[in-house]
């Protein structure tokens, strides 16, 4: 090796050591903060859900609770109202620090939503807490705008990983969610460290995640793969319908009720009345028991439609939480319905629906397929990849995150070889 080559190698090695050591340190801090926040959130969420189940009359307070949270956001939290979209926008175009108040605001708002029975999720809360806590390190370490982007992506990964117990999927989520059809590899190492650390810290605090069982995975054949691709397309259309309905109804309710507390009051009153009249308790809150049920035996054929409608209405009315767990519900129950029609196992298609509808709605097929492997084991890998990619293709160029940028696209119309182009 020539002297100048050796010098270059030593300098490059020293740079890599410094890079990996510094980002390991910062990412572990992000993971510790986010994992601790998620552990507390999961515990508090269980308390709120159990309290609501023990006192069904709390549903009557849903309109007032929603109006109160909306008023607090309007008065004191307008700078963090955009939630996940604010984080994504800041990663694309850094402007100013994420206010720390985002974490307690979204935590409190989500817990109130679940206490009174709104049909919302939990991923948005964990991701926003992770991002807001991570960004507080920007000033401490005097990070450049580019390094701040990486730090925020690490916060997104840490929040997602710790709330669902999927560190690998969490790491990929932070890279994949920013743009449709593009991964941000420059943040791969920090996102991985932050996601793994957050998951381990969350578990160390005693947090528990729901365990889903897909059952026996059949051997791969031409038909089982074809059935999976057909189902994947349907899952993608369901994800697209969910995302577009949420955006459209949100815009409509904002026109009808420009004042957000009144929007939450009116929307909450309609939601509570419909749920009470129809005795539709299975569509309140996260709906985890119904998701578990979808893996075991046939569920009501309209469960996926009802849960989707309940969540779209709750989110459009302004209730805080997220979309992912309700999307799990929609996907698992839709897979449960599709499975017998395609002569496939219910457990397998519930599992595929759980990840694939989310893949389509969030435009994150790789993270979703990896999540399936983490949740259900390696045998489901090929099926999960097929379902998630098809769902992504058929979900259109919009998603649940409006700040998501167009990347390389999902497919292109090519001229034929015969045309010589």
UniProtKB/TrEMBL annotation:
A Pfam match is Voltage_CLC
Q: Primary place of residence?
A: membrane
Q: According to its record, what are the GO cellular component terms? A: membrane
Q: Name one GO molecular function term.
A: chloride transmembrane transporter activity
Q: Which residues cross the membrane?
A: 20-45, 57-74, 150-175, 187-208, 220-242, 262-279, 380-403
InterPro entries in alphabetical order? Cl-channel_core, ClC, ClC-type_chloride_channel
The record's annotation in SUPFAM superfamilies points to: Clc chloride channel
Record flagged with keyword Membrane: yes
- Keyword Transmembrane found: yes
Q: Which residues form a coiled coil?
A: none
Q: Which keywords are on file for this protein?
A: Membrane, Transmembrane, Transmembrane helix
Q: How does it sit in the membrane?
A: Multi-pass membrane protein
Q: Where in the cell is it found?
A: Membrane
- From the Swiss-Prot or TrEMBL record, give the protein name: H+/Cl- antiporter ClcA
């Amino acid at each position: 090796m020539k002297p100048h080559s050796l010098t270059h190698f030593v300098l490059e090695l020293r740079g890599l050591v410094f890079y990996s050591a510094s980002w390991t340190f910062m990412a572990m801090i992000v993971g510790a903060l986010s994992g601790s926040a998620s552990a507390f959130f999961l515990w508090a969420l269980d308390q709120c859900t159990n309290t609501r189940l023990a006192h069904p009359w709390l549903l009557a307070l849903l309109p007032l609770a929603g109006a109160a949270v909306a008023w607090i956001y309007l008065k004191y939290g307008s700078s963090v109202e955009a939630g996940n979209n604010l984080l994504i926008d800041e990663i694309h175009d850094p402007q100013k620090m994420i206010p720390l108040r985002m974490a307690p605001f979204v935590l409190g708002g989500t817990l109130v939503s679940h206490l009174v029975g709104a049909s919302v999720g939990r991923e948005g809360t964990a991701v926003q807490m992770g991002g807001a806590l991570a960004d507080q390190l920007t000033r401490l370490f005097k990070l450049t705008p580019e390094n701040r982007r990486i730090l925020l992506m690490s916060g997104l990964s840490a929040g997602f990983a710790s709330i669902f117990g999927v560190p690998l999927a969490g790491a990929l989520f932070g890279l994949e969610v920013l743009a449709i059809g593009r991964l941000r590899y420059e943040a791969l190492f920090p996102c991985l460290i932050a996601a793994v650390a957050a998951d381990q810290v969350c578990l160390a605090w005693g947090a528990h995640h729901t365990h889903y069982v897909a059952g026996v995975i059949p051997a791969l054949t031409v038909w089982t793969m074809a059935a999976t691709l057909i189902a994947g397309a349907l899952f993608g259309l369901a994800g697209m319908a969910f995302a577009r309905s949420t955006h459209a109804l949100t815009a409509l309710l904002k026109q009808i009720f420009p004042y957000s507390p009144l929007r939450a009051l009116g929307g909450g009153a309609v939601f509570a009345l419909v749920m009470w009249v129809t005795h539709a308790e299975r569509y309140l809150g996260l709906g985890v028991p119904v998701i578990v049920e979808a893996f075991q035996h046939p569920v009501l054929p309209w469960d996926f439609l009802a849960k989707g409608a309940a969540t779209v209405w709750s989110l459009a009315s302004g209730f805080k939480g997220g979309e992912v767990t309700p999307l799990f519900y929609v996907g698992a129950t839709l897979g449960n319905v599709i499975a017998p029609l395609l002569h496939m196992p219910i457990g397998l298609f519930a599992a595929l629906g759980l990840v694939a509808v989310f893949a389509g709605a969030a435009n994150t097929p790789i993270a979703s397929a990896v999540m399936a492997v983490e949740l259900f084991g390696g045998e489901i890998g090929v099926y999960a990849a097929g379902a998630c990619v098809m769902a992504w293709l058929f979900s259109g160029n919009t998603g649940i995150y409006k700040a998501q940028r167009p990347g390389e696209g999902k497919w292109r119309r090519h001229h034929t070889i015969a045309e010589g182009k």
